[in-house]
Design brief:
Ion_tolerance_CutA; N-reg_PII/ATP_PRibTrfase_C; N-reg_PII-like_a/b; signal; 4 helices; CUTA protein; Alpha-Beta Plaits; 2 domains; alpha+beta
């Protein structure tokens, strides 16, 4: 019973936080995330952003203008320009988002990283939740 209780603690804690948030109207930190995805050019960025939105994997995608990127690739220092996508979604969708983007992205290893949203405008966070279906 003790081992089962320890194994179930994260699930029970998450459910308790969600219940508390529903009752009090407060935000549970980390419920939503921002994913960063790099793209070679604006057309690829638009195509990936539209595909993400069509699959309802995000509520909102910003396409940021060109930035200079320096990185090591196959032992060599590389320099290029890239377009960055900022994807606002549910944290629970990050795995699905990552898998989908990897399946359509032209890069061998695309940058797909995410950060949880700690706090924000409650109405905006609620809108993200309403815009992205649950699992």
């Amino acid at each position: 019973v003790l081992i089962l209780s320890l194994l179930m603690f994260p699930v029970l804690r998450s459910l308790a936080l969600q219940l508390h948030a529903a009752v009090t109207g407060s935000y549970v930190s980390g419920t939503h995330s921002i994913a960063f995805i790099n793209c070679l050019n604006e057309q690829i960025a638009k195509d990936i952003a539209r595909a993400i939105m069509d699959k309802k994997l995000a509520a909102y995608v910003n396409i940021l203008p060109k930035s200079l990127a320096l990185y090591f690739w196959k032992g060599e220092l590389e320099e290029s320009t890239e377009i960055l996508l900022l994807v606002k979604t549910r944290t629970s969708k990050i795995g699905e988002l990552s898998n989908y983007v990897r399946s359509i992205h032209p890069f061998e290893i695309p940058e797909i990283i995410s950060l949880p949203i700690d706090q924000g405008n409650p109405l905006y966070l609620k809108w993200i939740e309403e815009s992205v279906p649950r699992d």
